[in-house]
Amino acid sequence: MTMGTQHKVAVRPIEVDDLPAVSAFLHENLNQRVPVEGWARAVAVPWQVAQPNAGFMLVAGTAITGVHLAFYADRQIEGQLERFCNLGAWCVLPDYRIHGIRLLRALLAQEGYTFTDLSPSGNVVSINSRLGFSFLDTTTSLMPNLPWPSRPRRDTITSDPALLERTLQGTELQYYRDHAGASAAKHLLLMRGQRSCYVVFRKDRRKGMPLFASLLYVSDPELFLGMARPLARHLLVRERIFATLIEGAVVPRAPRFAVKLTSSRRKMFRSDHLQSSQIDFLYSELACLSW
Prior knowledge:
The chain is an alpha+beta fold and 291 residues long. The protein has helices at residues 3-7, 19-29, 36-43, 100-108, 124-130, 161-167, 170-179, 221-226, 228-239, 285-288, and strands at 9-13, 55-60, 63-77, 80-92, 113-117, 134-135, 140-144, 155-158, 186-192, 195-206, 209-218, 243-247, 259-260, 268-270.
């Protein structure tokens, strides 16, 4: 690439009118399993937020040569309004890779945000580390979803929207309403006696096989552990999911019949005042985009 070409490459915010072209670029160059409309739908988040952009893109002339998506959210944490920017898909054409870091720097230059990167791949982890990101606890256990005997009179597991609306309260009800329209988020209510646990998960791939559930949020980890076997049965029988991936940031202690994995996928954040315990996986690309 000549110096003349380098000078013609511009970094621009992704606006609403850019989404069709950006979605087509990501479909063609990053993941063709995700249809063009799937990319566009993911960026149009279902929760209410004033989005300054949908990320940034590299443009050479009139051609898009790179994209870094972003998902924004306003969260209430310990009574304070916190602004989040979740770093999403990052794809740059080979001839323009030298400019790729400009997209990330443009995102991080936005003041007042806590940044999360919940699916960094390859050398992105080391780049993030150099730019001040810290790691979340992604110690991962695999829970096999076995056909354990059921006890329907004792336990209830449901995805019924009406029951979720009637049962959930406060923060959990807001989480449900905000994510009910998110393409990748799936919702379950675990009930035993007077207790209930709200679970948000996504279907995930490992080694190309879409056979896993990854937990995004669990409101009551202790009840989750107490109902792990009926939940495993439910996911196998109702969802055809053969194993559940449980990360330490979501459920600190895995069920006894789960197996701890020797390696895990990294998740990272950067904040000038929030701690890792205040970061979750909601309001992110993980909830909005299936791949």
